[in-house]
Design a protein that fits this description.
It is a single chain. This protein is mainly α. About 20% of the residues are buried. Helices cover about 60% and strands about 5% of the residues. The chain is built from five helices and two strands; from the N terminus they run H-E-H-H-H-H-E. Strands 1-2 form a two-stranded antiparallel sheet. It has one domain: lambda repressor-like DNA-binding domains (434 Repressor (Amino-terminal Domain)), CATH 1.10.260.40. The longest helix is centred in the middle third of the chain and has 18 residues.
Amino acid sequence: APDFISGMDMVKDAFGLSVEFSSLEEVLVGIGTNIQNTRKSRSMSQSELAEIAGVDRAYISLVENGKQNITMSALHKFSEALGVSLISLMPSLSSTE
């Protein structure tokens, strides 16, 4: 996808999801919040997540605070390290059922 929002549109279409994003910042903050909440619910530190996901702890901090653009590859690493689906880390995605 040429940009993150276009990529998110492709993901929502592929999974039959209905969501509208007003800005890239909103998406990044939502993803970061979901990663942080999931990590904390597992009593995991940023350092532990960084080690398992194979990224730097500072990167985790930036992502969790919505200050870092994130690739689908990194998002996949986080979902694997946290033991959750990639979709569960996306902000406010809901089924169109």
